[in-house]
Specification:
The chain is built from 47 helices and 32 strands. It has 1572 residues and is of the alpha+beta class. The chain has a 5-stranded mixed β-sheet with strand order 11-10-14-12-13, with helices on one face. Strand 16 and strand 17 form a beta hairpin. It is globular.
Length: 1572
């Protein structure tokens, strides 16, 4: 890991290393602030205690100022009268009361308002949280109000007030988007600052440069890391190639953004003219940056910097609520009164109140006012909770809230996949052991109390794979019953005469004691009336028990309710906040226990009232999704607060849209939505619901006739979605895409899109002003679209080109012809139908007269695919361009050096002249290195390495000069660049620029004669790209798997790994074939097995899709269970149970043939047999993946490929959305089928959508990773903490990128010696991974392993074992035991068992790990040597010295072979062997003595070593890839001196610099500077 010394250090060392400034230190003022700084010092500057984040930030972002000066900021909020909708669209602002719930706010950036459901997070929980999670819990169902985000860990102010549209003092609200708060907010709750004390963290000035381009993505979606791999930048965003060439320059920041040592700015690589624009902004000017203080006007549009003062001046107020003791509450001035409401509605003792106001000295506080704007509110103020009269709306909110409190521990919503609830089981395994932020409740290790016996089914060698332990019964779920029934009464709504008495609604309750009561909700509260189920008598009963809250009323009439409700609330507030917050996107569980169905008035109301209005942001109207989605994109993004606010708004609206679209798509397929063209045939119907447009994935009107008909229509939506994702990532201002979600449900594919304003009023022909509606016959273009699309062409590598329309006129396009441009009635430029954004994949698109390169032909390509819409993935295009860039640089450098060497000779020609193909003279696609000398050999032939680097630098300089059209370039050098450009297929001959024409080989598209040559070049480029995939990417993937840098565990992670390298899933057969031909085939056994499993389940999924389309709703569970029986059961002839009323339904069908999506014959599915299904699976695998499966039944597949049926069940369920009953299935019973109808509980949608990114947070995260890699742990962890705060701002508290952040943070805490903090962070990572990714996702398994390690370090041994056992069980279920990751798991388990002296058990696991390691790493690898050593240690503890010696000898041999005699490891092993030999001899002597002298023997005491915890922990660290390097005091002294020397040097420099030009330039601060 980069700088080894640093990587090793523990806490004490870290403190010493990161130099502490004294009071009189000359470094207290920032070198960035010149003497005439525009900063007003209100108070004497305070000296920061440590130099930490600020310096790290400072290196990353050009203008981050580590200053202690506090900047002034304008008090009061700016009045902004601009309408939110992005400009003056002419609406007048109208007055509205904040309570009217008209507060839409920044398009869905929303928070629960007064009287919404339970708030998500408790104050008490947050006092331990390092970052208060934002409330994500109730994005739906509540009247919501906007708050701007909390930044960098504490509230902040903006010197230039960030204009947040629509915000002003008076609560005036625009008619479209009402007022929102213009101050950036703290998280949901006031909590303690992460680290109190006068440290730099609490007061620092941060500014951010918006130049950092938005990242295209987190390579591995789950960011998963191998436990023993150094943490490194996510693989997704590839480092610029310049970095590879300059052989990694220490001054580089994250991912190849080179840090200019003189300014510390992040600059795009100087080769920006050559690069194909990985930066997403066109015109990066390389000028020296201003630091944003002296001359703000110079900042350009893209580079506006801002300065934020971060301060945390929280204060405490006292709350007086009725019937509760007064209590203190910590608040922050940036919070709204609203948030105190939330706290009170979540607190155990005040949670039953929803309808109240807060009063200060008798004045009612405005809910949407910020605390700092309230006069007289200060430390110690008393706020009174005053009960307010109810309205119908408030009464309904109250009942909902009480129902939510009653259901707060009930997991049924998570099992049913509703309202973004999901499961988590961590609390079952840690028994609350991790409480008090990781400190164990009872001190000391009670050895004898630890029960270490693992469950039988997880022992190595076990063949049982039970399903029930997947979802263990959580004891909290046995809900304490408070009421039998709480429901709306049938007497609702109150008649007019009762309304005038204040009756709002009636409830009907049956208590646990079986008392039936009717309750009236009136304006004054709740009371008993005299009605019964059949007689209406609304008069109050006597006594009526009038109470303001329903809970108080029920407490009086039911003692059981009183007791159980109190107990329930106690349990509710004890749960970890992350168990309660809802996730941003719904996660579905593929198994669930059988739950009894209980009465639930709210659920019933939601199902049968128009559930559209349930988004109560704007009562009385549905949300205009398109307007919200587009308006959030138009939010300003000049500085960090604006960008955070914008990204948060985009993410929030997007997750709401995805939820609404999913619900709508299910309603469409279930037949609950009326079509807009009801007279057409079912397949052609289209639907509008909730302002979302739905269409089915069938080829309507022969649109896709030339492309593959229905098959093409089925894949088009996902291609389109990928296009939308890419254009959104490029994020060009003024270019708009539609909100798009693709839902697969019950065998149908539904595309949900937001609606372009005005599109429904006119014909498509009139609306399209760019592109073609008939696949290239009529084509139109438009200058504005060309201008906008040209901005995207560089990052997307799309070539501007001309095509001919049906009149033979040339039309210029900058996209594929199918891409349509429509200007909506709102004046925005929309692009849609982005299904051919990327170039075609020639390997699956045979074209007459076109030959592919030899590598492809060897693999049996091109192969005819089912449709002609096969495209290359964006990752592949990027990798290919990067590969070509490397080639370009090497070619040019080679030539320049040849020139230099010969001085007189002209450059050697690059092409061989006759063929013109770069691959003929430079076979860069060849696999053998001998062929590819000029391109692949990094060491160019001339001279030592340094020369090569200078050669490459020369090339960079040269291309820049040529690009700037400077006549001063020597013609020979120009020729070198031209030759190199030609050889790599660049479209420009002065700089490197590769782009693709997406219309090449598109049926029906014709090109003008003039561009004939260009088209030939493009065709060649496409063939090269196809060959690159086969000859570089597939071998690369397999090599990564061999090196264990990629460790897929199931189909999902394998898919991700392939996609990351740009390999489409249709290549799966080729990948599996390639593995079978690899020499190290056995070491790839696990990948082979996953590949086969994926082939089988994907083929089965294709068949299942068409199978389900023929099933009507009443036969769904029978049909699914029949399919699963045919697919997995050993029972030879399962018979389908047809629905009982089969005859009736057939008759009905003849009458309504048109109306049902299914075909007329609804029973065809019942005749499927296992033989037929497996035959079809094999045919499908052959025709789709070109792979021959050798199995005719499930049993044969299991035998031939050693698969597990339970794993196949999991894979098929996840892919198709099936949910099965949680029970033990007997797959091998030959006498009765495995599944019955009752085993199929549900079928869920499988949803694909765009996942918006938090770009600033992502850059911080990457930079933190880069720092950690270079060994700067402290800065790294501070940067990652900042990233965590920013992620929380954008995503709320739950997101998979936050999981990666928490995992890395925990690892750093651990390495730096803060075990309890590591435990706390990792616990959050596990909970979040379970909830966001799924309880048995491979990522969750790894999180469990890390958590177990930190538990062990915190002396929580039994918890550590439970967690490891859980991880092993999940691993067995998801894959089986023959996986390299299992070796790591077993080593961990074995070591912990060794530590608790369970030697025999320990041996079982360690020996299993040894076997697996030998298989996957080779018998002679160092991992195997370590395994031998671990086994030897256990034998030693058992006093079986002979076995111990044997094992250690094996290890010693490996060390000696691999590392030589003088290596430390070899010596250690040798010492240990000597020690074992002595022990063995001593033991033998003693035994002989006993034989000889019997009981009178004189026995020497033998040393049996029980292992020490420290030694076990040391071994655990080693196997988990965490190494500590011990440093001697002398090393420390040297380091300290070095650090101080550098600091003085830097001080001197920055002094000179300041004096010179008054413009501060950033020098690397001492701890960050790379070693010379």
């Amino acid at each position: 890991m980069g700088n080894g010394l640093f990587a090793s250090c523990c806490q004490s060392f870290a403190d010493l290393l990161f130099w502490v400034q004294g009071e009189d230190s000359s470094g207290e003022r920032s070198p960035l602030l010149s003497t005439s700084s525009a900063v007003a010092h209100d108070s004497p500057p305070q000296t920061p205690a440590k130099m930490g984040v600020s310096e790290a930030l400072w290196l990353l972002y050009p203008d981050i100022i580590p200053s202690s000066a506090q900047l002034e900021y304008p008090q009061g909020r700016e009045e902004v009268d601009r309408d939110f909708s992005g400009g003056n669209r002419g609406e007048k602002t109208s007055k509205s009361s904040p309570d009217s719930c008209q507060l839409l706010s920044v398009a869905g950036l929303l928070r629960p308002a007064l009287g919404s459901c339970a708030a998500a997070v408790l104050l008490a929980d947050l006092e331990e949280e390092s970052t208060p999670p934002l409330n994500y819990s109730q994005p739906r169902r509540a009247c919501l109000v906007c708050v701007t985000p909390k930044i960098l860990g504490s509230g902040f102010e903006v010197t230039e007030q960030a204009e947040i549209p629509g915000s002003n003092d008076r609560g005036d609200t625009g008619s479209e988007f009402p007022a929102s708060s213009s101050q950036c907010q703290k998280g949901l709750m006031p909590g303690k600052a992460a680290n109190p004390g006068p440290a730099l963290e609490d007061r620092r000035v941060v500014a951010c440069d918006s130049q950092a381009s938005s990242a295209f993505g987190f390579g591995n979606r789950d960011g998963s890391k191998l436990p023993n791999e150094p943490e490194c930048g996510p693989p997704g965003k590839r480092s610029q190639i310049v970095e590879e060439i300059s052989l990694y320059d220490e001054d580089k920041g994250a991912c190849g953004l080179s840090l200019d040592p003189s300014t510390g700015t992040e600059e795009p690589p100087s080769s920006i003219t050559l690069m194909n624009g990985d930066g997403l902004h066109e015109d990066h000017k390389e000028e020296p940056r201003q630091n944003g203080l002296e001359e703000p006007d110079h900042a350009e549009d893209g580079n506006d910097q801002e300065v934020i003062v971060i301060q945390d001046t929280g204060f405490t107020v006292k709350i007086h609520a009725p019937t509760v003791e007064p209590f203190p509450l910590q608040v922050s001035p940036q919070e709204m009164v609203q948030e105190i409401h939330q706290v009170l509605m979540d607190r155990e003792d005040t949670c039953h109140r929803t309808c109240f106001s807060l009063q200060l000295d008798g004045n009612v506080l405005d809910n949407f006012a910020e605390l700092k704007t309230i006069e007289g509110l200060q430390e110690g103020s008393v706020l009174k909770v005053v009960e307010e009269p109810y309205t119908v709306r408030e009464a309904r909110i109250h009942v909902r809230h009480i129902r939510d409190l009653l259901k707060s521990l009930d997991p049924s919503d998570a099992f049913n996949g509703v309202d973004c609830n999901s499961l988590s089981f961590l609390s079952v395994f840690n028994d609350g052991d991790l409480g008090d932020s990781g400190k164990r409740k009872k001190k000391g290790i009670e050895m004898e109390q630890i029960d270490c016996t693992p469950p039988e089914h997880i022992l190595p060698g076990g063949k049982e794979r039970p399903l029930c332990p997947l979802q263990p019964q959580n004891k909290d779920w046995k809900p304490l019953q408070c009421l039998k029934v709480l429901t709306m009464s049938g007497w609702n709504p109150p008649p007019g005469n009762r309304k005038m008495h204040g009756d709002l609604m009636y409830l009907y309750v049956i208590t646990v004691e079986d008392r039936h009561v009717s309750i009236t909700a009136s304006t004054r509260g709740f009371y008993l009336n005299q009605s019964t189920a059949y007689n209406f008598n609304p008069k109050p009963a006597s006594p009526s028990f009038l109470s303001h809250s329903l809970v108080e009323l029920l407490n009086q009439i039911s003692p059981t309710f009183k007791r159980n409700f109190a107990a329930l609330q106690k349990k509710r507030v004890q749960r970890h906040p992350l168990e309660r917050i809802s996730t941003p996107f719904q996660v579905y569980s593929w198994t669930a226990p059988l739950a009894e169905h209980v009465m639930d008035c709210v659920r019933a109301e939601d199902a049968y009232t128009s559930r559209l209005g349930y988004e109560e942001h704007i009562p009385g109207q549905t949300r205009d999704w398109n307007e919200e989605l587009q308006t959030t994109r138009e939010l300003p993004r000049k500085n960090l607060p604006e960008r955070l606010l914008r990204e948060r708004a985009i993410f929030k609206v997007h997750s709401d849209f995805t939820a609404a679209a999913t619900r709508g798509a299910m309603a469409v397929i279930d037949g609950n939505v009326m079509a807009i063209n009801p007279s057409e045939e079912t397949k052609m119907q289209m639907f509008i619901w909730n302002n979302i447009f739905f269409s089915l994935g069938f080829d309507v009107r022969d649109h896709y006739k030339d492309f593959g008909g229905d098959v093409a229509a089925y894949v088009a939506p996902t291609n389109d979605l990928n296009g939308v994702r890419t254009y959104n990532a490029v994020d060009v201002e003024g270019l708009y895409t539609l909100g798009t979600v693709v839902v697969d449900y019950r065998g149908y594919r539904v595309t949900a899109q937001s609606i372009i304003p005005g599109i429904l009023e006119r014909e498509q022909e009139q609306s399209v002003i760019y592109g073609s509606i008939d696949f290239g016959k009529t084509i139109v273009s438009h200058p504005k679209y060309l201008e906008l699309l040209e901005k995207t062409s560089r990052p997307l590598k799309i070539q501007k080109h001309k095509v001919l329309n049906d009149k033979n006129e040339e039309v210029e396009l900058c996209s594929s012809v199918e891409c349509k441009g429509i200007i909506g009635n709102d004046g925005r430029h929309y692009i849609l139908d982005l299904l051919r954004t990327f170039p075609p994949d020639l390997n699956f698109l045979p074209v007459e007269g076109e030959e592919l390169l030899e590598e492809c032909q060897k693999m049996g390509l091109p192969k005819e695919h089912r449709h002609k819409l096969c495209c290359l993935r964006q990752e592949l295009v990027d990798a290919f361009v990067e590969h070509r860039y490397l080639m370009f640089m090497k070619l040019a450098a080679l030539q320049l050096m040849q020139q230099k060497a010969s001085k007189q000779g002209s450059p050697a020609p690059l092409g061989n002249g006759n063929s013109g193909s770069p691959t003929s003279s430079f076979p860069e696609n060849g696999v053998e290195d001998s062929e590819t000398f000029p391109l692949e050999d990094a060491k160019l032939e001339d001279g030592p390495l340094e020369d090569n680097v200078t050669g490459l630098d020369q090339v960079k300089e040269l291309t820049e000069t040529i690009a700037s059209d400077d006549g001063a370039v020597d013609p020979k050098s120009r020729e070198v660049i031209q030759n190199a450009c030609k050889a790599v297929g660049s479209i420009s001959n002065t700089s490197f620029d590769i782009r693709f024409n997406p219309d090449i080989f598109s049926p029906g598209v014709r090109f003008p004669e003039s561009s004939k040559e260009q088209i030939q070049d493009q065709k060649r480029l496409l063939k090269d790209a196809a060959a690159f995939l086969v000859s570089y990417q597939i071998p690369g993937l397999v090599k990564d798997c061999l090196d264990h840098t990629m460790l897929p565990m199931d189909g999902g992670t394998l898919t991700e790994a392939m996609h990351q390298r740009g390999i489409n899933m249709r290549y799966l057969g080729k990948v599996v074939d390639f593995i079978t031909k690899t020499p190290a085939r056995t070491q790839l056994d696990h990948i082979y097995k996953i590949g086969i499993m994926e082939l089988i389940t994907r083929s089965a999924k294709h068949i299942f899709k068409t199978y389900l389309q023929g099933v009507e709703l009443s036969g769904l569970s029978a049909a699914i269970s029949h399919f699963l029986n045919c697919f997995l059961s050993s029972f030879p002839n399962p018979v389908a149970h047809l629905p009982a009323d089969e005859l009736v339904s057939k008759k009905k069908n003849k009458r309504r043939k048109n109306r049902n999506l299914s075909s007329a014959d609804n029973t065809a599915w019942s005749s499927t047999s296992p033989q037929e299904l497996w035959k079809n699976i094999c045919l499908e695998a052959k025709s789709y993946f070109d792979f021959s499966l050798e199995c005719e039944s499930a049993d044969q597949a299991v035998e031939v490929y050693s698969l597990q049926k339970i794993t196949l069940l999991r894979e098929i369920s996840l892919k198709t959305g099936i949910q099965v009953l949680l029970k033990e299935y007997n797959f091998d019973n030959r006498h009765k089928p495995t599944f019955t109808e009752e085993d199929i509980l549900n079928i869920f949608p499988v949803v694909k959508h765009v996942n918006p990114k938090a770009s600033d947070a992502f850059h911080f995260f990457q930079s933190g990773q880069a720092k950690v890699q270079q060994g700067f742990l402290k800065e790294g962890s501070e940067l990652i903490s900042e990233a965590l705060n920013l992620f929380n701002n954008v995503y709320g508290a739950m997101h998979m990128e936050i999981v990666a952040c928490l995992r890395l943070l925990a690892r750093l805490n651990y390495i730096m010696g803060d075990y309890s903090e590591a435990l706390s962070n990792q616990q959050k990572a596990v909970l979040m991974s379970e909830r966001v990714l799924g309880i048995e996702h491979p990522n969750t398994i790894q999180e469990y392993m890390h958590l177990a390690l930190y538990c062990f370090a915190n002396s929580q041994l039994s918890t550590a074992l439970n967690l490891l056992y859980r991880a092993r069980y999940l691993m067995l279920l998801v894959f089986g035991d023959d996986h390299p990751e299992m070796a790591l798991l077993d080593n961990n388990i074995g070591l912990v068992l060794h530590g608790v002296m369970e030697y025999d058990l320990s041996l079982r696991f360690l020996e299993n790990a040894l076997v697996i390691n030998s298989k996957y790493h080779g018998a002679k690898s160092l991992k195997v040597a370590l395994s031998h050593h671990l086994v030897a240690r256990v034998y030693e503890s058992k006093a079986e010295f002979r076995s111990a010696l044997q094992q250690e000898k094996e290890g010693y041999t490996i060390y000696k072979q691999q590392l030589g005699d003088h290596h430390e490891k070899t010596k250690e092993s040798s010492e240990y062997l000597k020690y074992l030999t002595q022990q063995a001899v001593a033991l033998q002597r003693t035994m002989n003595e006993i034989y000889k002298n019997g009981s009178s023997a004189n026995i020497m005491p033998l040393k049996f070593t029980a292992p020490s915890m420290a030694s076990i922990l040391e071994q655990l660290n080693i196997i988990n890839g965490i190494l500590f390097i011990p440093l001697s005091p002398k090393d420390l002294e040297n380091l300290k001196a070095e650090v101080q020397r550098r600091h003085q040097l830097q001080e001197a420099k920055s002094g000179d610099q300041e004096a010179e030009d008054r413009v501060a330039e950033v020098e690397p601060s001492p701890p960050l500077a790379a070693a010379p």
